[in-house]
């Protein structure tokens, strides 16, 4: 699979919503509980500082995405935040790593100085391994910081990296 990452366009809305909603519906990674519709999804993806679309260069299939935006405002506006989603059935093929690396470069190009993840769920071993591999610093553990879909609370581990 030849993965290219490019900027989101309105033509990507349906594919991006499908992938995003897979993660939301699983209820083990994103804080959102509500799924996106065509209308809310178009506004959501267009409203980010950058939405990156991972596409298979051979087939044109959208296989993943990320959103990048400020983590805060004003004196903390130089810190960005991001979320990543890879299409079910294609996870484990290093698409997520390509998304994170692209996001780090894009964040720096947009003038952000730090990329921070507020809520990496402690049971998300793949994400934790990837962030360690890429040089992110874990900031400790917040006990019970994430409500899982099944109703129990899982610890979260915020991370950051200097861009």
TrEMBL record:
Pfam families named in the record: Acetyltransf_1 (PF00583)
Which positions fall inside the N-acetyltransferase domain?
3-160
PROSITE patterns per record: GNAT
A Gene Ontology molecular function term for this protein is:
acyltransferase activity, transferring groups other than amino-acyl groups
Gene3D superfamilies named among the record's database cross-references:
3.40.630.30
Q: Which PANTHER family match?
A: ACETYLTRANSFERASE, GNAT FAMILY, N-ACETYLTRANSFERASE ACA1
Q: This chain belongs to which protein, by name?
A: N-acetyltransferase
Native source species: Luoshenia tenuis
